[in-house]
């Protein structure tokens, strides 16, 4: 029995066309991420879709589509920045007295904090609207604390107030205050942070 309705085959899409479309999509996404990072470094901590489109050299509609999932963009920016700084953060310390390693940690933090400053300022603006950024904030704070505590001998770790003071002096919040609120140069901020840490180390009676 026939129905009299002519069957219409669905149009076939060639695999090459699909792959090309996907590749263009990946290229656009990469350009959007790079444009956002460039704008943030230049001082625009919350770039609009229009500015990103102009910087990336792609259509505004394409940017809007990706802006529908901002957490994915934040995650990609975070991944890129992490790849830059993590080798410095997790590099092993020399076999030397713990005080010397704390001073080495100060040197590392100055570089890492300065590299990440614009991105962390931008993230702070958005983290209360972003589950990803809020979670990332908590993870980074915990990691930064752990990297300090693991360098301290047990007798020093027993002084809770002293440990908290050292963590505060070496925190990103301190760096942000020095650089952003007090308008110090990176060199000046590094000197201040180093002096704060030296003052704290001088109060600790502990054999190296």
Task: Write structural notes for this entry.
The chain has helices at about 15-40, 50-55, 60-65, 70-90, 100-125, 130-150, 155, 160-170, 170-180, 185-200. The chain is mostly helical. It folds into two domains: about 15-70, Orthogonal Bundle (Arc Repressor Mutant, subunit A); about 70-208. Helix 8 (about 160-170) packs antiparallel against helix 10. It starts with 14 loop residues before the first helix and ends in a 6-residue tail after the last helix.
From the structure above, extract its key features.
Arc Repressor Mutant, subunit A; mainly alpha; 208 residues; elongated; disordered N terminus; 73% helix
| Average residue pLDDT | 90
Largest beta-sheet details: none
Beta-strand content:
under 5%
Total domain modules: 2
**Structural class of the helices, strands and pairings?**
mainly alpha
Helical fraction = over 70%
* Beta strands, count: 0
Helix/strand order:
HHHHHHHHHH
Task: Please write out the topology.
Layout: H1 15-41, H2 49-56, H3 60-67, H4 70-89, H5 98-126, H6 131-149, H7 154-157, H8 160-169, H9 172-181, H10 186-202
